[in-house]
């Protein structure tokens, strides 16, 4: 390949919307309102309409969104929160920071969503919430999880950082967007995300009016009226420039999802009949927005494969090389190793290929041909 292959090509994506982005940024520079500008309200309203939820409250990043959600639900030190072990650390990090107790469960080895069959086995009188992670771009199986939460009077906080725009279908035909089914949904606008800004950013979703009011207060130093602080809060806000950028990119989100699915389909066709790996499974009850295209390797030395791909100019990533229950910082929290075999195994098997909105067929053909030619 003559051109450099990127895991995510943010420069090429910017070029496709350059005039709109440049105009949006220039407008903010001209009016000088960099914090709490009108673009914030407009973006929140437009995103709320897109995901069909009553309230979107923006914040500084996806990790803050998770922390604010738990603060808004009045979770107290010692309360237990059920979380999958196979996910990014932020999901458990905020639990520990708030002196809550992360209780690790496994994931489904096919869809990578939280393993619902283990949930009731780890519920105790101290359990207060469950955090399903919509990993790699599709929804966890939410209908049975919502039923468990209702049965045991638990909150559900959806971690939607990797799956904004994915749609879940219930058995009665109802369809809902990722992040809008639980008590609170959270997401990230980190630049590499499907809806990413040019810095840090995040948001929370809820249909509960009182909860939305509290979330907004917590994110703003615990105040509704300036200098009057009703609750303990944090300083977590999306800046106006990022909101302006996100408004432009939100208008393109469906096209971005279609482009990612096109790349995934090309990979699927080329790689599906090779027994050395399993291609990603598309859950029957969720669309997929392919934040990552992740293969499950079968009897292949992953490090050797990564080096081979790199030698041919193809980047790859491992999301994630060590499950949370085996991380030094979290090893002392409650977990049953026998319950977490999938997480441990996946951490040794998974490898993600380049996928982004500007990846063309010539490049995917090259990537897949190099993969097919691999010999250990």
Describe this structure in words.
β10 and β11 form a beta hairpin. With about 375 residues, the protein is α/β, with parallel strands linked by helices. The strands form four sheets. A seven-stranded mixed sheet has the order 1-9-8-5-4-2-3, sandwiched between helices. The protein has a three-stranded antiparallel sheet with strand order 12-13-14. The relative contact order is 0.17. The longest helix is centred in the last third of the chain and has 19 residues.
Shape: globular
Written as H for each helix and E for each strand, in order along the chain, the element string is HHHEHEHEHEHEEEEEHEEHHEEHHEH
First-residue to last-residue Cα separation: 22 Å
Poorly predicted runs of 5 or more residues: none
User: How much helix, percentage-wise, in residues?
Assistant: 25-40%
Instruction: Assess the beta-strand content as a share of residues.
Output: 5-15%
How many strand segments? Answer: 14
Helix/strand/pairing class, anyone?
A: alpha/beta
Mean pLDDT level: 97
Radius of gyration: 21 Å
Number of helices: 13
Biggest pleated sheet: 7 strands, mixed
Strand order of the largest sheet: 1-9-8-5-4-2-3
């Amino acid at each position: 390949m003559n051109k450099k292959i990127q895991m995510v090509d943010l420069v090429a994506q910017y070029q496709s919307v350059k005039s709109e982005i440049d105009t949006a940024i220039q407008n903010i520079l001209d009016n000088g309102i960099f914090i709490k500008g009108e673009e914030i309200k407009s973006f929140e309203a437009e995103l709320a309409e897109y995901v069909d939820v009553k309230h979107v409250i923006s914040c500084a990043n996806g990790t803050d969104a998770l922390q604010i959600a738990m603060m808004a639900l009045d979770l107290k030190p010692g309360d237990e929160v059920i979380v999958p072990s196979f996910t990014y650390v932020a999901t458990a990090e905020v639990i520990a920071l708030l002196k809550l107790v992360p209780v690790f469960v496994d994931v489904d080895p096919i869809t990578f969503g939280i393993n619902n069959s283990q949930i009731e086995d780890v519920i105790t009188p101290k359990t207060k919430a469950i955090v399903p992670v919509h990993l790699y771009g599709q929804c966890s199986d939410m209908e049975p999880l919502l039923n468990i939460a209702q049965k045991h009077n638990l909150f559900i906080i959806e971690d939607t950082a990797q799956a904004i725009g994915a749609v879940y279908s219930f058995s009665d035909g109802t369809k809902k967007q990722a992040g809008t089914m639980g008590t609170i949904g959270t997401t990230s606008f980190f630049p590499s995300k499907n809806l990413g800004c040019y810095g840090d950013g995040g948001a929370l979703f809820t249909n509960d009016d009182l909860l939305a009011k509290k979330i907004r207060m917590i994110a703003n130093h615990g105040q509704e009226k300036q200098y009057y602080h009703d609750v303990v809060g944090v300083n977590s806000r999306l800046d106006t420039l990022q909101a302006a950028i996100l408004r432009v990119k939100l208008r393109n989100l469906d096209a971005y999802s279609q482009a990612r699915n096109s790349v995934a389909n090309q990979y699927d066709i080329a790689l599906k009949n090779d027994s050395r790996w399993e291609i990603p499974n598309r859950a029957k009850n969720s669309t997929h927005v392919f934040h990552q295209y992740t293969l499950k390797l079968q009897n292949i030395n992953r490090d050797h494969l990564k080096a081979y791909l790199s030698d041919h100019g193809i980047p790859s990533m491992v999301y994630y090389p060590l499950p949370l229950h085996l991380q030094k910082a979290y090893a002392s929290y409650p977990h049953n190793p026998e319950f977490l075999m999938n997480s441990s195994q996946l951490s040794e098997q998974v490898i993600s290929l380049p996928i982004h909105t500007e990846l063309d067929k010539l490049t995917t053909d090259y990537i897949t041909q190099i993969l097919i030619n691999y010999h250990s």
